[in-house]
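in:
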């Protein structure tokens, strides 16, 4: 038995109470799960951003339940400590409450995720309440909600006017009341994120929400420089993994072309008398 203790929802609530910053990042595969868990991250999101950064879709809209389930299972096999959240893809909870409970159940029961996340505020409160009542912890996601960005005028900062900002605060309060255990605040002004963080008892995790959130989340591929189609303003790039991999593959191609690979240490051999007999048998 491993003596590493899994982070529980109650541990995340304690962190907010104690003013300890919560760290969160996405992962989509077994090795990524291993790496971010070993680094000591608190929460791993198997985000539907996998559609863009791993599967090459235009946006997150086409992502399916089957894809989320497969990637959630892979990440779970690599993680010992972090709390793992599985994202509910577009149209897996938007049709009916029953559909939302069924699909949350698949990611939780078959995928073995520790919780699920879905996008939307007041409009989604009834689904969140029902999933929580069924026994599955739910992470809310408000502000810029990428699955429905077309309805928000594109990928734009949300809540800049008083009316819009009040709507985002009401979304946060509705989700807290429905039983969500934490909230992602995406692409909203820092001052609005600070007000929400003060108003709700559950932790807020910002992505483009500024420093006053209880924690921060980034997409792994953005912060290690593996996704280069575009980089949002709220991303800090910590490494250039794309270039590291590109250079490694170029070196490998060169080594094969110039017979530098495989070298002696990468090669299996057999005894000389076996070679002689074999060559004789084949007339070589
Ligand atoms: O899918 C995802 O990666 C997300 C983050 C942007 C929070 O929802």
């Amino acid at each position: 038995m491993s003596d590493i203790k899994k982070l529980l929802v109650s541990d995340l609530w304690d962190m907010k109470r104690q003013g300890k910053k919560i760290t969160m990042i996405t992962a989509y595969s077994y090795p990524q799960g291993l790496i971010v868990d070993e680094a000591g991250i608190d929460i791993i999101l198997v985000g539907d951003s996998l559609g863009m950064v791993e599967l090459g879709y235009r946006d997150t809209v086409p992502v399916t339940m089957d894809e989320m389930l497969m990637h959630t299972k892979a990440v779970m096999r690599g993680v010992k400590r972090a709390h793992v959240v599985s994202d509910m893809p577009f149209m897996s909870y938007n049709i009916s409450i029953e559909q939302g409970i069924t699909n949350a159940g698949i990611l939780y029961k078959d995928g073995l995720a520790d919780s699920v996340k879905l996008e939307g505020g007041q409009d989604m409160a009834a689904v969140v309440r029902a999933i929580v009542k069924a026994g599955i912890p739910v992470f809310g996601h408000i502000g810029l909600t990428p699955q429905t960005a077309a309805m928000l005028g594109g990928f734009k900062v949300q809540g800049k006017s008083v009316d819009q900002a009040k709507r985002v605060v009401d979304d946060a309060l509705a989700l807290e009341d429905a039983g969500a255990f934490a909230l992602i605040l995406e692409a909203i002004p820092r001052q609005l994120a600070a007000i929400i963080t003060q108003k709700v008892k559950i932790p807020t995790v910002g992505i483009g929400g500024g420093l006053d959130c209880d924690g921060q989340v980034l997409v792994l591929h953005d912060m290690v420089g593996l996704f280069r189609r575009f980089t949002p303003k709220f991303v800090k790039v910590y490494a250039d993994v794309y270039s590291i991999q590109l250079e490694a593959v170029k070196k490998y191609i060169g080594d094969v072309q110039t017979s530098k690979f495989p070298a002696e240490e990468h090669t299996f051999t057999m005894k000389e008398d076996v070679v002689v007999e074999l060559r004789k048998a084949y007339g070589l």
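note: The two ends are 56 Å apart (CA to CA).
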